[in-house]
Amino acid sequence: MNQRIEDGTWTMNLPQRRRGDGAWIAWLDRESIVHPRFQRARFVLAEGPAVLISAADLRRALADWLADSNGGTLRPFTIDFEHNTVNGVPVEMSPGSQSAPSQEVK
């Protein structure tokens, strides 16, 4: 899993589709999504464009997991770029840059 953050943008490279329905599976760790510098996520797709999702939308889509103190620190989620959803929750997605300099999240 490749995760980086710079200027509030957290980046995850998604190397391949994981499901037959067009959705992608990505793994997030709780530290990354609640990181105070995290403002937006950039998902860079191996087969196409990069998209941006605001941290607020991502947190809203993953609210049940974030609210569950027993939810674990690492969890998969589905992201459907065709239907603009994360775990079935509608989110706003916008085009993002394919590449950007970055640094590891600490």
List the helices and strands and how they pair.
Blueprint: E1 2-6, E2 9-14, E3 24-29, H1 30-34, E4 40-45, E5 50-54, H2 55-61, H3 63-67, E6 74-80, E7 85-86, E8 89-90, E9 93-96, E10 103-104
Parallel strand pairs: 2-4
Antiparallel strand pairs: 1-2, 1-10, 3-6, 4-5, 5-9, 6-7, 7-8
Provide tags for this entry.
106 residues; single chain; 6-stranded mixed sheet; alpha+beta; 4-stranded antiparallel sheet; disordered C terminus
The pLDDT mean sits at 81
How large is the radius of gyration?
Answer: 13 Å
What class, by secondary structure content? alpha+beta
Would you identify the regions where 5 or more consecutive residues have pLDDT less than 50? 101-106
From the spread of the alpha carbons, the general shape counts as globular
Trace the largest sheet across and list its strands.
9-5-4-2-1-10
Total DSSP helices = 3
What multimeric state do the chains show?
single chain
The H/E string reads EEEHEEHHEEEEE
Number of strands: 10
